[in-house]
Design goal:
Strand order of the largest sheet: 1-2
Helix content: 25-40%
Strand content: 25-35%
Structural class: alpha+beta
Number of helices: 1
Shape: elongated
Radius of gyration: 13 Å
Number of domains: 1
Length: 42
């Protein structure tokens, strides 16, 4: 049986659009399988 790697779900609460963009770009550059969700108000 082949093990499948599960992706991680990441929730980021940040009201600064520039910070959200930087985080998104940094996470896209890695090889980690992930689902990314942003909220502006935690």
């Amino acid at each position: 049986m082949v093990k499948q790697r599960k992706g991680v779900t990441i929730l980021i609460a940040d009201d600064d659009e520039d910070d959200r963009l930087l985080l998104k770009e940094a996470l896209e550059e890695n090889a980690l399988s992930h689902t990314l969700h942003f909220v502006e108000d935690g």
